[in-house]
Specification:
- The protein is an alpha+beta fold.
- The chain has helices spanning 2-22, 25-28, 82-90; strands spanning 32-43, 49-57, 66-67, 79-80, 95-101, 114-124.
- The protein has one domain (23-124).
- 25% of the residues lie in helices and 32% in strands.
- It has a four-stranded antiparallel sheet, covered by helices on one side. A two-stranded antiparallel ribbon has the order 3-4.
- Strand 1 (32-43) and strand 2 form a beta hairpin.
- The chain starts with a helix and ends in a 10-residue tail after the last strand.
- The structure holds zinc ion.
Protein backbone atom coordinates (compact mmCIF):
# COMPACT_ATOMS: atom_id res chain seq x y z
CA UNK A 1 0.00 0.00 0.00
CA UNK A 2 1.10 3.53 -0.80
CA UNK A 3 0.69 4.82 2.75
CA UNK A 4 2.78 2.02 4.18
CA UNK A 5 5.46 2.70 1.63
CA UNK A 6 5.53 6.39 2.47
CA UNK A 7 5.69 5.48 6.13
CA UNK A 8 8.61 3.20 5.44
CA UNK A 9 10.44 5.92 3.50
CA UNK A 10 9.77 8.35 6.31
CA UNK A 11 11.31 5.92 8.79
CA UNK A 12 14.40 5.50 6.64
CA UNK A 13 14.72 9.28 6.27
CA UNK A 14 14.35 9.71 10.01
CA UNK A 15 17.02 7.12 10.69
CA UNK A 16 19.35 8.83 8.26
CA UNK A 17 18.77 12.11 10.03
CA UNK A 18 19.34 10.55 13.46
CA UNK A 19 22.63 9.14 12.27
CA UNK A 20 23.76 12.47 10.90
CA UNK A 21 22.72 14.20 14.11
CA UNK A 22 24.77 11.72 16.12
CA UNK A 23 27.91 12.75 14.29
CA UNK A 24 30.94 10.63 13.60
CA UNK A 25 32.76 8.46 16.10
CA UNK A 26 35.95 10.43 15.42
CA UNK A 27 34.18 13.65 16.40
CA UNK A 28 32.25 12.36 19.34
CA UNK A 29 34.78 9.91 20.73
CA UNK A 30 38.17 11.06 19.44
CA UNK A 31 40.00 8.67 21.78
CA UNK A 32 38.31 5.65 20.21
CA UNK A 33 40.14 3.83 17.48
CA UNK A 34 37.42 1.28 16.90
CA UNK A 35 34.73 -0.83 18.46
CA UNK A 36 33.28 -4.25 17.94
CA UNK A 37 29.71 -4.72 19.10
CA UNK A 38 28.56 -8.29 19.32
CA UNK A 39 24.87 -8.82 19.96
CA UNK A 40 22.73 -11.84 20.51
CA UNK A 41 19.08 -11.15 19.82
CA UNK A 42 16.73 -13.09 22.02
CA UNK A 43 13.00 -13.44 21.82
CA UNK A 44 10.32 -15.31 23.66
CA UNK A 45 10.34 -18.74 22.12
CA UNK A 46 11.46 -22.25 22.79
CA UNK A 47 14.68 -21.48 21.00
CA UNK A 48 15.26 -17.97 22.28
CA UNK A 49 18.24 -17.04 20.11
CA UNK A 50 16.83 -15.13 17.16
CA UNK A 51 20.10 -14.06 15.60
CA UNK A 52 23.62 -12.99 16.31
CA UNK A 53 25.13 -9.89 14.90
CA UNK A 54 28.51 -8.24 15.00
CA UNK A 55 28.89 -4.59 14.16
CA UNK A 56 32.31 -3.12 13.47
CA UNK A 57 32.59 0.54 14.34
CA UNK A 58 35.30 2.71 12.85
CA UNK A 59 36.25 6.32 13.58
CA UNK A 60 34.56 7.18 10.28
CA UNK A 61 31.31 5.48 11.36
CA UNK A 62 28.34 7.36 12.68
CA UNK A 63 28.19 7.45 16.46
CA UNK A 64 24.70 6.02 16.27
CA UNK A 65 24.12 2.91 18.32
CA UNK A 66 20.38 2.55 18.43
CA UNK A 67 19.93 -1.01 17.26
CA UNK A 68 16.61 -1.95 15.80
CA UNK A 69 14.35 -4.53 17.37
CA UNK A 70 14.02 -7.47 15.02
CA UNK A 71 10.46 -8.25 16.09
CA UNK A 72 7.92 -7.59 13.38
CA UNK A 73 5.26 -5.11 14.43
CA UNK A 74 7.31 -3.69 17.27
CA UNK A 75 6.62 0.03 17.52
CA UNK A 76 9.15 2.44 18.94
CA UNK A 77 11.36 -0.38 20.08
CA UNK A 78 15.04 -0.98 19.80
CA UNK A 79 18.15 -1.19 21.84
CA UNK A 80 19.96 2.05 22.35
CA UNK A 81 23.53 1.29 23.29
CA UNK A 82 24.54 4.97 23.04
CA UNK A 83 24.43 5.78 26.77
CA UNK A 84 26.32 2.58 27.60
CA UNK A 85 29.01 3.35 25.06
CA UNK A 86 29.25 6.99 26.18
CA UNK A 87 29.69 5.97 29.81
CA UNK A 88 32.26 3.29 29.14
CA UNK A 89 34.33 5.37 26.76
CA UNK A 90 34.46 8.04 29.42
CA UNK A 91 35.78 5.44 31.86
CA UNK A 92 38.18 4.11 29.19
CA UNK A 93 36.80 0.60 29.58
CA UNK A 94 37.97 -1.91 27.05
CA UNK A 95 35.13 -4.34 27.25
CA UNK A 96 31.54 -4.16 28.34
CA UNK A 97 28.96 -6.88 28.74
CA UNK A 98 25.30 -6.64 29.53
CA UNK A 99 21.78 -7.10 28.37
CA UNK A 100 18.85 -4.91 27.45
CA UNK A 101 15.13 -5.41 27.05
CA UNK A 102 13.20 -3.87 24.15
CA UNK A 103 10.88 -1.14 25.37
CA UNK A 104 8.80 -1.13 22.23
CA UNK A 105 5.19 -2.20 22.17
CA UNK A 106 2.56 -3.35 19.78
CA UNK A 107 -0.91 -4.82 20.08
CA UNK A 108 0.12 -8.42 20.41
CA UNK A 109 3.55 -8.01 21.93
CA UNK A 110 4.32 -7.44 25.56
CA UNK A 111 7.11 -5.12 26.57
CA UNK A 112 9.45 -8.01 27.25
CA UNK A 113 9.04 -9.64 23.84
CA UNK A 114 12.67 -9.23 22.94
CA UNK A 115 16.05 -8.57 24.45
CA UNK A 116 19.69 -8.57 23.50
CA UNK A 117 22.81 -9.53 25.28
CA UNK A 118 25.74 -7.51 24.13
CA UNK A 119 29.46 -7.48 24.34
CA UNK A 120 31.33 -4.38 23.30
CA UNK A 121 35.07 -4.21 22.80
CA UNK A 122 36.50 -0.74 22.61
CA UNK A 123 39.91 0.02 21.19
CA UNK A 124 41.53 3.29 22.05
CA UNK A 125 44.00 5.25 20.03
CA UNK A 126 47.50 5.14 21.47
CA UNK A 127 47.97 8.85 21.37
CA UNK A 128 45.84 10.81 23.72
CA UNK A 129 43.61 13.22 21.84
CA UNK A 130 44.62 16.83 22.00
CA UNK A 131 42.31 18.89 24.06
CA UNK A 132 40.23 21.20 21.96
CA UNK A 133 40.80 24.87 22.48
CA UNK A 134 37.21 25.68 23.28
ZN1 LIG B 1 10.77 -4.69 20.16
Amino acid sequence: MMIQRQDHIKKIEQKKKNKQDAGLVSERYPAVDGMVIHMTYLHKAENPVLMERTVNVFPSSYAYFNMECMTKGCEGGGFDLSPIIARNVKQQKKSVKGSMVCKGKSEDRSADHASISYEISIKYARKKPKRSKK
